[in-house]
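Subject line: Sequence and fold of a protein, written as structure tokens
Area: Proteins and the way their chains fold up in space.
Start of record: The labelled sequence and token lines come straight after this line.
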Amino acid sequence: MNLRIAAAVLAAVALTGGYGPVSATPFEASYAVSQSGLPVMDVQLAMQLTDASYRLVSISRARGLARLFLPAEQRAEVQGGLAGREVRPLRYMSEGNWRSGTRRTVVDFLGGQPSLSLQEPPDLDRYPVPPDQMRGTIDSLSAFVRLSLDAAATGRCDVTGAVFDGRRRLEWSSRTVGMVPSPLPGVTAQALRCRLESRLVAGFRHSDNPAEAGRPREADAWIAAPGAGLPLMPLRVDFPSTLFGAMRLELVRVNRSGE
């Protein structure tokens, strides 16, 4: 579970309108990422969900010393269609400004199957994900849209799947821990606590030890509506990072677009 996956958790679960019907009202949310209390990254999200479609945009910016080894800015976007709780991504794009230059990835879903349309520069440090490992996957943002729809409909987060981000295939799962008190001051609603797990299965770096790089990585998310008239969204996500150790994302503010 890395910063990109954690941002996906935020973006997708924040789309739901509660344990009931979804809302077409666009929302914007801001999160702070920290390690041992030190700021590492800011994440801004813009999202919209209708009965038939979804669109998410996330922009993350590194702060402080994290600028030395994280992209100065990372943008990800997905657009797709919905059939009930079934997600049907159409196009996933990501772009990041690293010290070594800009990296761009575009994945188009043709007939429901992913196709790597653009990768700049080519990722020569990784073994490419073979076509048979791409089949049946969706992008990471869409995967958590699926999780969010299940949480909204059932009040639980028991979901499994596989994602392809243009460079790697990961298998992921989520399970319900239970309803717990909110971890954020000022939020009185009970929170749904979910345990998330991801595991790299293809797209290893040439220098990776597959046993270490492929071991499961866990995260915990606390999900609730932060106020009256606001949608369900993560209040906090705790997750590991190979660079930093334990990381934390926390909700800073949320509002309907245009407010």
The first helix runs from residue 3 to 13.
